[in-house]
Amino acid sequence: MLRKYGGKSLVEWLVLLLGVVIFLVGLVFVAGGTELALLGGSLYYLLCGLVLLASGLCMLMGRMQGALLYLAALAYTWVWSVWEVGFSPIDLLPRAFGLTLFGLPVLFSIPVLQRIATRRAIGNTR
Asked: Rounded distance, CA 86 to CA 41, Å?
């Protein structure tokens, strides 16, 4: 039996923590991306940051759309990275590694988010 803390299991709390981290990364991307865009640079960081903010917020609300938005941002990151530097591993590493690293926990969070959504749909909050 899973232990409950405040009506949520430990795994659900970890998914919420992941949502907080993704939201904070999104804030950093938006701040840096806005500055870069104002200097005439790439819009990637601003756009990706906005998607990460929405993703983190949705995950905090226990919605699976948050995971799907994150995976969309990850796909966008890989397309942008390959378009910008080609298939050079040394050049792809700083552009795609961080978001890719969070991709696995996000994938593993999908069943937990589905369980939360199912409980919400049947009206059971615990």
From this structure: 19
* Helix (H), strand (E) at residue 4: strand 4-5
Tokens found for residue 107:
């994938």
Type of residue numbered 118: T
* Residue given tokens 């601003």 in the structure block: 46
Report pLDDT digits (tens) over 52-93: 999 999 999 999 999 999 999 999 999 999 999 999 999 999
CA distance 71 to 92: 18
Question: Tokens in use for 98?
Answer: 């961080």
Q: Quick one: CA torsion of 28, 107, 67, 92, rounded to 10 degrees?
A: 40
**Is residue 8 within 8 Å of 112, Cβ to Cβ?**
no
Report field, pTM of the whole predicted structure over 0.85? yes
Residues 6+ apart with CB under 8 A from 103: 70, 71, 74
- What percent of the chain clears pLDDT 70, i.e. is strictly above it? 93
% of residues, the chain, pLDDT over 90: 81
